[in-house]
Amino acid sequence: MLTFLLTQTADKITPRPSGEIPMNKPTKTQSSPHPRGTKATEPLLPRKDWPQLYMDSVIWDAHACLPLLPNYDCSALERHRAAGATYVSVNVGMDFNPLSQCIRVIAGFRDWIKRHPDHYVLADTLADIHRAKKEGKLAIGFDLEGSVMLDDDLAMLGLYRDLGVRQMHLAYNRDNQIAGGCFGKNQGLTKLGRQVVQEINRVGIIMDCSHSAKQTSLDVMEVSTKPVVFSHSNAKALCDHPRNIDDEQIKAVGRTGGIVAITGIGPFLGADIATDTIIRHVDYMVERIGVAHVGIGIDYSFDQDHSDLPAGEDPALWWPKVKGAEFNFSTLRFVSPERLPDIAAGLLKHGYKDADVIAIMGGNFMRVAEVCWK
Question: Number of C-alpha atoms within 13 angstroms, CB side, residue 6?
Fold first, then answer.
């Protein structure tokens, strides 16, 4: 299989052929390391204190990250299942990860899920998610963060969809040949990018705009004929970070019938990662676009010591320093999966109705998936 290295100008990311795979990964004969991140990083609310609606409803986490290693042991996802989650979308590649790596990661994750049928289900349909809820299992889908791994080939979208990718955005922080990233030059969709959005709609993948430039997100929402989401983004008005989104973007995604999913990464929340802070961002979105357009995508990274950045890539290019909200992996604060039942309880405590909490914690994403996955 042809492999790729990523080369960059100041803001453009383009693929070039190479004989090597530039990533921190085992060779074909090695197995991946035993997983880290299997232990809870904060207390889990005792099950007796979980709201009944939480135990009865589909709980959807729109984004999480495992190390992008072939044949990786995904046991850390048990933390989501133990916290009552029904579905989690797991990243399988970013713009700096070559196509060959993304395919091998997907193959390994699929194989691991298949070998653990008692607790996990690869979600192909909504029926799989309902079955997972009924049987106490965790349904898993994949997402892509960027579009370089398409190799400018629209046919790759159908392949990724068939392999389990159910959600994707088109640029990871930097501009590329398809779309603009949030740390780029506010590039919009290219001609090819518009075709990609149309094909994403056609093959049945949820169109995401997190990490995207504002103009790209507005272009996506103009082109898409199906609901669009921000799978892990917060309100810029509450935390002025380039990864967050402003009112124009928030209102535009609401008009598509889509969702803004609140993320639990410290620099995007603001002063702290308390449940009340998460709910402040929920409140902000609800006040502008209504309960039907808000969800949760905590973006928990299960191994914060592992880097998926290929050798030779500059971290500062992909995660530039932002005054007052530095993105330093060694000190980064994450809301963990253990917080999910506490978020539901907190929403009820703040006066949200049962139906509203059910919608925010998963019902809204089920509605969007029903439209987009067809």
Answer: 33
